[in-house]
Amino acid sequence: MGMSMSFMGKGLPSTQMVSFVMGTLYKQFVEKDIKSFEEFHMAILDIFNTFNSALPGRHYDAPSRKDIEDCFARWKKAPEAKRKELFVDFMKTSVNLSRLDDSAMVTGVVTPPAAMAAKRAAENLPQLKIIKMVPDVVFVPTATVLALASVKLTRRMFLGSIASPST
C-alpha cells in the first residue's frame, strides 16, 4: 500500500508530460488539413483557445501574427518528418503565461475602498442624492471593473503609440 501511494505523488516526469502534451496538440493540429496561412493561423489560435478554456486560472498569450507567419513559412517548406519538431519548438518558445501588470494589480486593490469612500462622499451632496439608491453590492464591482477596463485601455493606447514606428 505504501509503495503505490509513493508513486501517486510523483506523477509523470516533466519531459514526458511536455512530450505527451505536444504530441496530442500536434495530432489535433495536423487533423485540420492545413493548406493556407489562414488555416494555419486559425489552428494555432484554436490551440491557445483550448489551453485557456481547459486550464482554470492560467491563461496563455497567443504569439503575434508575424511570429505565426514566420513559423508557417518554415513549416510549409519543411519536409513532413520535420514538421512536428518545428511545431513543438514553435509552441515551446511561443507559449507565454499571461501576466497581470502592476498597474492592473494596484488598480484592482485600491479601487474598491476608493469607490466606497467616493460613494459615501457623494451621498452627502444634494446633486447626487440619487446615488443612495444604488446598492453597494452593485456600485463597488461596477466601479472596479470600469477602473480596470480604463487602465487596460489606457495602457494599450499608450504602449501602442510607443510600439508603432513614427512615419
From TrEMBL:
Highest taxon listed in the record's lineage: Eukaryota
UniProt xrefs under PANTHER family? CALCIUM ION-BINDING PROTEIN
- Protein name according to UniProt: Calcium ion-binding protein
Species the sequence originates in: Hevea brasiliensis (Para rubber tree)
